[in-house]
């Protein structure tokens, strides 16, 4: 994989090149911008990939790294890159000398099962999906004839946290709002906005004063905050770009808040408060009220759960959350919908029994 670092005012790029059966670093310095360094690295990787992938076979870990360096790395954010590096490590551990043509569905399923022994289902699915994308690419390029990832099932023997721990009940939510609505702390303001909007931390942190419309009582989600790079980035998906309507009484309260110069919510560093800082504030309030302990992202689940409990249409909830597909909303909150379905069933049977 390519790596980049800055020396003084110039950037340096480094790529791994295979020479006589062993890998050697090829480094070039003096680039004025990171983009120039990235373009050089891509050119080097292209030369390397033409020497190896054109043979339509090779060590799967090496081919994966080359695919990542050319098609993924330049486009991904810092946090997402970590998942691809993880997959690379897994491939080198499980199949250090295996060629792409030597892998079949059974091998892939065994690898997924092994990884699933010590990781939660969501992590296993993430790893499986990344590797599946590479396999589909390999099929499209005629490196292999069959997509051996097609029928792979996600397996995990490690349980995820109980879903009930991820959102507040209505009485807990009311206590939190009452406790926090008069606080002047920036982190408190972020928590309150998340409760009423269902926005992600990265979306709340990226808000500027211009994203608040006090005439229409809305906020405009059009970017997100990349904490690792300390910069704005695109939202998670295209559908994440959205206008969220908020209660007039809440927006009247927001109008009284003091916004930062660049970001709506600024800490003493001039940057948005970190996710850790906001979570610390939230945890302090929840402990004080003896409420269920959730994370800032749990406020998003709380928002959706509250709306569903009030019989708000699932399609609207999905749009409000910025989900790419209503099926994402259905799968995420299936446990709540099942609970509500049971209540509706009991109400139906009671009504029919009274005929």
What's the number of extended β-strand segments?
8
Radius of gyration: 25 Å
CATH secondary-structure class of the largest domain: Mainly Alpha
Mean pLDDT across every amino acid position:
88
Continuous helix count = 14
Oligomer: single chain
Strand order across the largest sheet: 1-2-3
CATH architecture of the largest domain: Orthogonal Bundle
N-to-C order of helices and strands:
EEEHHHHHHHHEEEEEHHHHHH
CATH fold group of the largest domain: hpI Integrase, Chain A
Largest sheet: 3 strands, antiparallel
N→C terminal distance: 71 Å
Report the sheet-strand fraction: 5-15%
- In the CATH hierarchy, what is the superfamily of the largest domain? Intergrase catalytic core
Low-pLDDT residue intervals, each spanning 5 or more residues: none
> What is the general shape?
globular
Pfam families: Arm-DNA-bind_4, Phage_integrase
GO molecular function: DNA binding
Keywords: DNA integration, DNA recombination, DNA-binding
Domain Tyr recombinase: 163-347
What does this 3D model show about the protein?
The structure is a single chain. The chain has 355 residues and is mainly alpha-helical. The chain has 2 domains: 3-140, Tyrosine recombinase, N-terminal domain (DNA polymerase, domain 1, Orthogonal Bundle); 164-345, hpI Integrase, Chain A (Orthogonal Bundle). The protein has helices at residues 34-52, 60-72, 78-94, 105-116, 121-140, 170-180, 186-197, 201-205, 248-254, 275-288, 296-309, 314-321, 326-332, 334-353; strands spanning 3-7, 10-19, 22-31, 212-213, 218-221, 224-226, 231-233, 242-245. The strands form 3 sheets. Strands 1-2-3 form a 3-stranded antiparallel β-sheet, covered by helices on one side. A 3-stranded antiparallel β-sheet has the order 4-5-8, with no helix packed on it. Strands 6-7 form a two-stranded antiparallel ribbon. α7 packs parallel to α11 (296-309).
